[in-house]
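Thread: sanity check for a docking pose with zinc ion

Original post by kr_44:
Hi all, I'm comparing my docking run against an independent structure prediction. Below are the sequence and the ligand SMILES. Could someone generate the full complex and paste the structure tokens? I mainly care about where the ligand ends up relative to the chain.
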Amino acid sequence: MKNAKASAATEKSPRARASAAHRHAASPEAALALADAYCRKRGEKLTPIRRKVLELLLNSGRATKAYSLLDEMREIHPGSAPPTVYRALDFLLSAGLVHRIESINAFTVCHDLTHCQHGMLVVCQQCGSVTELHQPKLREALIAQVEDAGYRLAGEEIELKGLCAACQAAQAAAG
Ligand SMILES: [Zn+2]
Ligand SMILES: [Zn+2]
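Reply from moderator J.T.:
Ran it for you. Here is the predicted complex with zinc ion included:
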């Protein structure tokens, strides 16, 4: 195999959390402030519940299922009802702050909280880590090809199923 490096065995445990490169460069606080300003500019409000759901997603750093978000909300606000969390997610989706990851039925924060230029999502099917590739030309070319073939994409998202580096290493170590 092409990447069989003998010295790779000395690397630290592959289970040691997914690459920090997948996370936002900015701190969650900075990201929340950006999102807040972005909503205000659009004449919308990042209400406390919307903000909390976004914060939970920022802190998770990977795609998270709605019921996990609900569980976390209930730890903070014991009375949280599912519709409250779902409505907050709907808002965040429509504002473009969050992506729905269909292949694993989960949600993740957009890598580009304010510019509304969505990339292509690469989703680890094992751990839910998501990387958003920001390649506008490639994205346009792909969409053009799809349209040339007579199709229109169902929705904005372009989602590629993958296995992240940490999960590949874990799999190699287990095998
Ligand atoms: Zn995005
Ligand atoms: Zn993974």
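The chain has one domain: 22-174. Hope that helps with the comparison, let us know if your pose agrees.
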